[in-house]
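ARCHIVE CARD
Drawer: 12
Card no.: 0347
Subject: one protein chain, sequence and derived structure
Cross-reference: see card 0346
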Amino acid sequence: MTEDDSAAPETDDAPPAAEADTPEGRSPHRGADLSVEASHPMPADAAAEPRVPLRPARPEAFEAGTRPDYMPRLPWRPFLLFGGLLALVFGGYQLREEQLREALRVQILRTHDERLSGLAERYRTFRGLIEQRTLEAAQAGEPERWVDPRLRISGLHDGPGVYLRLTLAQARSVEGIEDGARSMGADALVRCLGIAPASARGLYQAGAFLTQAWVDEARATPERIRLRVLDEQLARSVQVDVPAIATLLSAQYFLLVIQQGQSRRDAPVDVYLWDLREDRPLLRARVQGRGLLLPVRLRFDGVAPAPRPETPPSVHSIGAFDCSIAAQIKALTGEAPVSVGSAEEIEARAAQPTAPAEGAASAPGTPAEPHDEDPRGNPTPTAPGGAQAPAAPASAGTAPTP
């Protein structure tokens, strides 16, 4: 080993001379790093700080009800002006509707009070009397048969009256009486009686605008369209219904028929008659209908007979029972009921000789027994003691037999 070798020993840490001195031996990346470090010196503590990774920009989270700064602002002022204008128009419309509604309400009530107050008071009093008599009759049970001796049904022919027919269940309450009167249909009972009272159905239907309930509805209804309906109904009733109701309120008698069942064919009926002028009863009785309808064909000389109907009429029609009830009512008042008989029986009875009284001998020249006449003018033999002999049973005719 020479002296020079011992003076400069080679180590692995020293860079090779060729790399340090020649550009070809220098790494290009290393040169770039050195040039950057030379032109931009880094602070001494930069090497010790950790590097933070880059993140994309995102909007920050905001609480509910807040608006981020990057969002555009809405034009609230036009919306507020439009909403205020809309509220003003709607409020004005509601105020105008209320004014029109109250003006119409005042007009209806004023018309009713000025033009109908007297009639309404009479109507409520008359209707209350009808309902009171009906309730009393329904609660009394089976009526004891009684007739005013002065009563003649034929005397009611020309007088105005009111007729109400309903079931026993309906007659037990004011609401039931009203429902029964409104649903009351036509029947043959009053026609068979020979009278023409007004139906209580018209009293309840046409006179509804005179009740206190109608006035209360006009005062309380909140709808203008309903008030317009009431106003039109009132105007029509004043022109059309007031004259008819005034006639009904002048009725002189009230005829009430309470059905003990759903049909007058199957159950008896309670009949009541009141004199409304003196407010006293005239008749009360329970009657069971038992009539038959007798079909009749009429034949005239020189006229072709009418063809027979394809379907024969029912002999148990409800009209026959109504006429049977009417005939029994007439009989209670002392009026002879309608009876029928065949022409053959009448002629045979008229041709029969008068039988002498029992135990008396007929002598030549002795006058025959006196004869009475039936309602048709046919002679009827008189039994001893002045009693008429019973008539033959009816077998044909046009009227139902009681």
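Annotation on reverse: The chain has a mean pLDDT of 75. The first helix runs from residue 3 to 7.
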